[in-house]
Structures are given as structure tokens and as C-alpha cells.
Amino acid sequence: MRGLRFSGFSLIMMGLAVLAVVVLAPAAQSWVAQRQQIAALQQAVAAEKSEVDSLTAERERWNDKTFITTQARERLAYVMPGEVSFLVINDLPAAAAAAEPAPVSTEVQATKSDWMHSLFASAMAAGLAPVAPEGSSK
């Protein structure tokens, strides 16, 4: 322990260093938090700007007469006067269609519960239930 000696100056300098850390730590923490918030807001602004750009481009497309005509043909099935429209109902290739549909059962199957009895019991339970007084929160 003999080699470990502190002078008054070194103690004052260590105290000032500790004091500087204590004073500057909250400011550094708030600076880092602000930088993170700025980065998040810049990302949000960039996302909104790209959405505005795409909406502007879409608005410009709607100003084009050929685009409007195309949309009317596709979405609403409109045709120009004198044209004939054909509607293709099943345009799937034969390979995509099911080879053979599942066969329909020729037997009548009984259900596990009698639906008429269940319906009658439900109607009776609803009709015979006690009426809640007005203003009740149930």
C-alpha cells in the first residue's frame, strides 16, 4: 500500500470527473433519446412521402382518358357503342379442373340430434325466461 498515494490535486481531479459524469449523464441520455425520436420521425416522414408520391402517380393515371376507359372495361364491364362484350365463365384449363367430383351419397343419413326438438326447446326457453327489469345492467 505504500506505492498507492493520492495527492490533494488528484483527489480534486477525480471529484471533478465524477461530478462531470453526474452532470452530463442526463443530458447525454436525453440527447440519445431525442436522436432516436428524430430517426423514427424521419422514417415516418419517408413512408408518408412515398405514399403521397404513389397517390399522386395514381391521380395522374386517372387524368388519362385511356386509363379511365380501361378501368371501366375491366371493373364495370363497359363497352364502347357498337362493340360486343363476351364474358368467359370458366377459363381454367382442363388440367386445373377436378378430374371427377366426389360422388353424392344415395343414402339418407340420420342426424345425431332431432333439430325440431332443439328448435322447440330453444323457443320455449326464450319465451319462458324471466324478463329483466328496465335499467338493469344484465
Short description:
By secondary structure, the chain is mostly helical. It is about 60% helix and about 0% strand. The protein contains three helices and no strands.
Give an overview of the whole structure.
With 138 residues, the protein is mostly helical. Helix content is 59%, strand content 0%. The chain has 3 helices and no strands. It has helices spanning 8-62, 65-76, 115-128. The radius of gyration is 39 Å and the shape is extended. The N and C termini lie far apart (80 Å). The relative contact order is 0.03.
Query: Roughly how many Å is the radius of gyration?
Result: 39 Å
Order of helices and strands: HHH
**What are the low-pLDDT stretches, counting only 5+ consecutive residues below 50?**
none
Chain-averaged pLDDT: 87
Identify the quaternary structure here: single chain
CA distance, first residue to last residue: 80 Å
Please tally the helical runs, counting DSSP H or I stretches of 4 or more residues.
3
Shape: extended
The fraction of residues in strands falls at: under 5%
Structural class, please?
mainly alpha
Relative helix content: 55-70%
Largest sheet geometry: none
How many extended strands?
0
Provide the fold topology.
Elements: H1 8-62, H2 65-76, H3 115-128
Keywords:
about 140 residues, extended, mainly alpha, about 0% strand
